[in-house]
Design brief:
mainly beta, 22-stranded antiparallel β-barrel
């Protein structure tokens, strides 16, 4: 037998043995698995801890399954520990888990943010997300309350592409973010239109986030054209929560937080301060020993250096002494109940907020409370009543009452005073315990504790009633809604005054000189704020019908609104809107919107405007040729829109009219009169024309275009993204003419002369997957918007580089710095800068002589840096979920923005003789041995060339911020059910935790050139949410 035959026989025997082995193993495994079949049970809840009934639970690869009951419970027989459960529910992410050795499961389903059937709230209605053809971004309630904030506008920061937010201050009650949509395209008010439950409102900043069901941002013309002249700056639509049929559900949320300033300015102590002050006097060509009353002698400086006598040589860190850096408490509570029957559904919410202030010395007097705080009560009751088969009545009743307290200047000017207060000026207290002061420089303590305070109360009440009529008895899909609303707000400010004795202490003689005088604490004024009343009537006819693969939805709306503020003439708006949507097989989509609105700002014949828009969408993934790649690209849509929207906002009313003003006796006092028969009528008084009329004035318009792409890749929406590119051409912007010759003697009338182009792009990306039993996600967005002024009615003869046209809106203008003067020869051979203030010495800033005339003047100012509003906003949020534990981190940033560091925030000694502090950067000033210094030569002169607006003092306001860190734990049902709950969640949260920027001492988002701002706050929060 040859070797080849032997090998062949061996191979046959091996194969037979292998087949027998595989067959035996399979049979043994089947018997083993059969023996391992067992019962498991579990509870399924959503991310808010509420149980989910009707959830499908299926053993993968089999027909074995179950459905959760009304309490979210399920029981199931599984064949093996290797079995995989697939948990699926409409509107939630599908969840898979290996059974293993567990017999009990607590499963939390996350909202499926990318569900194609998700409903998006749009103007005057809602649409399926798949069929939306405009640029719309939306936040759900769960996202708004995820990171608790005192002011709901701050919940938007970094969350939505195309939304530019800036928080200008952190004072309790005044910490709302300013919001722009896709940057700024007008010189007038660029804030978006706010619509709450279909009614225009001034703001949504003081709403309780627990009341909100969804928030939609409408960005392109297709989305906003139906609002006509009010929609040019974008629209924010807020829908509040409503009850659903079922047993009552109670949700209780409590938050306890600690607020601390994100940035505390650090300044030099007295000794270092005075050493720099001495150098500054020398640079000004003055003898330091002859300045500041002998403060800069060697003996005096040595005393400050040793710091042994705090009364003769004080060294007070005023910021640290007056501000409690340990923080202030913040509390927030909400309880709401919802439910209903087929006849009546309800949602009722009560909320309370208490934000404390961060100042010391607020408890020195009994029955006297100058501490800064803000308290707010919120109430909402949304009721839906089914009158009969065809009619439903909805009533929304809501209100809020706010109380803001604090001493005068607490919003900002007090902080400017702290920055301006030198550490050596005087101590806080004198040796005898009296309050210290010097002539012309008060003690910051008295501003807090002994100067009185103000207490303001505001009340807002809103009522919205809507009668919905189902007219399907006429034809299927027809409806008619009538909505009437009434909004009212009013308030008052009570002012209290006080005073205290202050003394100047002369350490050499021990003499006390009284400066301030005690006055009794008393009530001084109760000033009523102008009440605002607004009524709105809205009529809407709707028609929606499907014919096979054809879907049609349309609306026709009439709207009129009247607003009365104080004793002013009531303002009115009225208009019509229409929209028609068409879709074929949810694949080919089209929409046409029309707005026809009027405004009081224009004369008859120009009062009404017509604003059309159109959009198309194409769901490519629904095509047959995409079936082969359906597992890779389950969803792909392109869309585009173009349309015309308008704006009538300006600082004045009745813009087309001329303006007359009265001049009383003695230039403004007394009773206005014409003064006929006098030799000096201008002094006696009269009425004169201030501004010409322009009855041809009309609305400013914006032609907007948008192209978008939406995609979801791989199964379970593993990766999804949205990209939008937009362009806007704003024309006929409402301005008072700048080219009108002054010889006319009147202010220019309002004209349609401004023109701006704005363009940009934005994208949103999300990825979600799991590694073993740990789910993870990453969400991010990026927005860019840049404008360019085309026309600003620049006067004839203005050089191109000094025109507003050709640059960005609100871009800074000043002198371009070329570097430091290095020596006297350098100064001599350069253009003359003494015109801007001298003396000019080596180390001073060297400016560009833009017009080349050899002398620096205003004619040499050019555009520098960016504007205060960032062109770029971005955010990235990674997170993990394991069992009931979720950890997320949000990084948020801004770029292409500038901030001017002048005055007390930037210049040495505050920019003027006799006031202001210095910081570490000022120590690194120019000398011949330090030619690459961080700061120019020091000067005491208030008017000096260095202390002009220039590119050196204009700093980058770019930043990256650790915006939010949150740890959330949803307790297992076996714990909370014993307590009679349906859900229990606890969370730790920190916001505004750390900021990376090129700015020292101040927060780049809130700082201004004077430092006159209440610092933005970091908040460390613990909260619980309980559901019954």
């Amino acid at each position: 037998m040859n070797t080849e035959t032997l090998h062949f026989k061996f191979l046959k025997v091996f194969c037979c043995v292998l087949l027998l082995q595989l067959g035996w193993s399979h049979a043994l495994g089947a018997v083993t698995e059969a023996n391992q079949t067992r019962q498991i049970q579990g509870v399924i809840t959503d991310s808010q801890g509420e149980t989910l009934p009707g959830v499908n639970v299926l053993v993968k690869g089999t027909s074995i399954g179950a459905i959760s009951d009304i309490d979210g419970k399920f029981t199931l027989q599984v064949p093996s520990p290797k079995s995989v459960l697939i948990i699926s529910y409409i509107g939630y992410e599908t969840y898979e888990v290996i059974v293993g050795n567990k017999t009990s499961f607590n499963i939390v389903l996350e909202d499926q943010m990318n569900t194609l059937d998700e409903v998006v709230v749009v103007a005057y209605g809602s649409q399926k997300k798949q069929t939306v053809t405009g640029a719309v971004s939306m936040m759900k309630s769960s996202e708004l309350v995820a990171a608790p904030v005192a002011n709901v506008t701050n919940a938007l920061v970094g969350k939505l592409p195309g939304v530019v937010t800036q928080q200008p201050g952190g004072r309790p009650g005044e910490d709302a973010a300013t919001i722009l949509i896709r940057g700024k395209s007008t010189f007038n008010d660029a804030s978006p239109l706010i619509i709450i439950d279909g009614v225009e409102q001034e703001s949504f900043s003081q709403l309780d986030a627990n009341e909100i069901e969804s928030l939609s941002v409408l960005k392109d013309a297709s989305s906003t054209a139906v609002y006509g002249i009010r929609g040019a700056n974008g629209v924010i639509l807020i829908t509040t929560k409503r009850g659903k049929e079922g047993k009552p559900k109670i949700s209780v949320t409590a938050n306890w937080g600690l607020q601390r300033p994100t940035q505390i300015p650090e300044f030099l102590g007295s000794y270092e301060h005075l050493v720099l002050r001495k150098k500054a006097w020398e640079n000004d060509g003055k003898d330091p020993l002859q300045q500041d009353n002998g403060l800069l002698t060697d003996e005096s400086l040595e005393g400050f250096r040793l710091g042994e006598d705090p009364y003769r040589y004080p060294d007070v860190n005023w910021y640290d002494e007056m501000v409690n850096k340990r923080g202030a408490l913040q509390q927030q509570y909400n309880i709401n109940i919802s439910g209903g029957t087929k006849a009546v559904k309800y949602f009722i919410s009560l909320g309370y907020l208490n934000q404390g202030g961060m100042f010391k010395y607020t408890d020195l007097q009994k029955d006297y409370n100058p501490q800064v705080y803000y308290r707010r009560f919120n109430f909402r009751s949304n009721i839906d009543l089914n009158i009969n088969k065809y009619q439903t009545l909805s009533a929304n009743i809501s209100g809020r009452s706010g109380e803001m307290n604090g001493f005068k200047g607490a919003s900002g000017s007090y902080f400017q005073g702290l920055i301006a207060k030198e550490p050596w000026r005087h101590p806080i207290y004198n040796p005898d315990g009296s309050i210290a002061a010097v002539q012309g420089s008060g003690n910051p303590l008295t501003s807090i504790a002994y100067s009185g305070y103000e207490n303001s109360k505001t009340n807002y009440y809103d009522i919205v009633g809507t009668l919905h009529n189902d007219l399907s008895f006429i034809t299927n899909g027809l409806s008619f809604d009538m909505s009437i609303s009434f909004n009212n707000n009013f308030g008052s400010t009570k002012k209290y005054t006080d005073g205290i004795d202050t003394y100047y202490y002369e350490p050499n003689t021990g003499r006390y000189d009284q400066l301030g005088e005690d006055s009794p604490f008393r009530f001084s004024e109760d000033k009523k704020t102008d009440p605002m009343r607004r009524t709105n009537l809205q009529l809407k006819v709707g028609y929606g019908r499907s014919f096979g693969k054809h879907n049609i939805n349309s609306i026709l709306v009439y709207n009129q609104q009247k607003t009365t503020s104080g004793s002013s003439i009531p303002s009115a708006l009225m208009g019509y809107a229409a929209r028609v949507e068409y879709g074929f097989a949810d694949k080919y989509l089209g929409e046409v919107s029309l707005g026809y609105n009027g405004s009081e700002n224009f004369a008859k014949g120009h009062r009404f405007g017509f604003f059309p828009s159109g959009s198309l969408g194409y769901v490519i993934s629904e095509e047959a040729f995409m079936e082969k790649v359906k597992k890779v690209i389950p969803y792909l849509k392109v869309r585009g829109s173009v349309g015309l929207v308008g704006n009538d906002k300006s600082k004045d009313r009745f813009l087309y009219m001329g303006e007359f003003t009265g001049q009383g006796i003695y230039a403004g006092g007394g009773t206005p009169s014409f003064g006929f028969g006098t030799t000096n009528p201008s002094t006696n008084g009269g009425i004169y024309e201030k501004r010409n009329e322009n009855k041809l004035l009309t609305w400013e318009t914006a032609l907007k275009g948008n192209i978008g792409l939406e995609a979801r890749l791989f199964s379970n929406d593993l990766l999804s993204f949205t990209v939008d590119v937009f362009k806007e051409h704003r024309k006929d912007i409402l301005l008072q003419g700048r080219s009108t010759p002054q010889i006319i003697g009147l202010s220019s009338p309002y004209l349609n002369v401004g023109e701006v182009k704005n363009w940009g792009y934005e994208f949103e990306l999300s990825h979600r997957h799991h590694i073993g039993k740990v789910d993870y996600y990453i969400r991010g967005n990026y927005s860019f918007a840049r404008n360019e002024v085309i026309n600003y009615d620049d006067p004839a003869g203005t050089p191109d580089y000094q025109k507003i046209a050709g640059f960005r809106i609100d871009q800074f203008r000043g002198y371009q710095v070329l570097g430091f003067f290095q020596n006297a020869e350098d100064i001599k051979s350069s253009p003359d800068q003494t015109t801007l203030g001298g003396p000019i010495i080596p180390g001073d800033l060297k400016y560009w002589d833009r017009n080349g005339d050899g002398s620096l003047t205003d004619a040499d100012k050019v555009a520098i840096g960016y504007s205060r509003i960032p062109e770029i906003m971005y955010s990235i949020t990674p997170g993990i979920i394991w069992k009931g534990l979720e950890i997320s981190v949000q990084f948020q940033g801004a770029a292409h923005a500038s901030v001017l560091f002048a005055g007390n925030a930037g210049y040495e000694f505050g920019g003027g003789a006799g006031g202001g502090q210095v910081s570490e950067v000022h120590k690194n000033y120019w000398t011949p041995d330090n030619p690459n210094a961080a700061y120019p030569s020091l000067h005491m002169a208030a008017k000096h060339s260095n202390k002009n607006i220039n590119s050196f003092h204009l700093k980058s306001a770019d930043y990256i911020r650790l915006k939010n860190v949150q740890i959330t734990y949803s307790f297992p049902s076996k714990i909370y059910r014993k307590l009679g709950m349906t859900g229990l969640k606890a969370y730790l949260n920190g916001s505004n935790l750390y900021t990376w920027s090129k700015i020292d001492n101040f927060d780049p988002e809130t700082v201004n050139n004077s430092g006159e701002v209440y610092p933005q706050q970091s908040v460390y929060n613990f909260g619980v949410n309980i559901n019954f």
